[in-house]
């Protein structure tokens, strides 16, 4: 099982750059990049809430669960 982060998809739909999102969410560019690439091990609800507010989306639009056949 794994969690897929679709942050780049939502950013593209909203025509927003990583730098712009970083400023609006008040998160460092490096931390946002780690999240975007799917390398993050965890995310705070407050961070997820801020991202959803800025991108005008739901958490399920950003995070997706897949069963890798386990």
TrEMBL record:
Entry superkingdom: Bacteria
Pfam families, per the entry: HTH_26 (PF13443)
Domain HTH cro/C1-type: 7-62
Chain coiled-coil ranges: none
InterPro entries attached to this UniProt entry: Cro/C1-type_HTH, Lambda_DNA-bd_dom_sf
Matching Gene3D superfamilies: lambda repressor-like DNA-binding domains
The protein's name: Helix-turn-helix transcriptional regulator
Organism annotation: Pedobacter boryungensis
Organism placement in taxonomy: Bacteria, Pseudomonadati, Bacteroidota, Sphingobacteriia, Sphingobacteriales
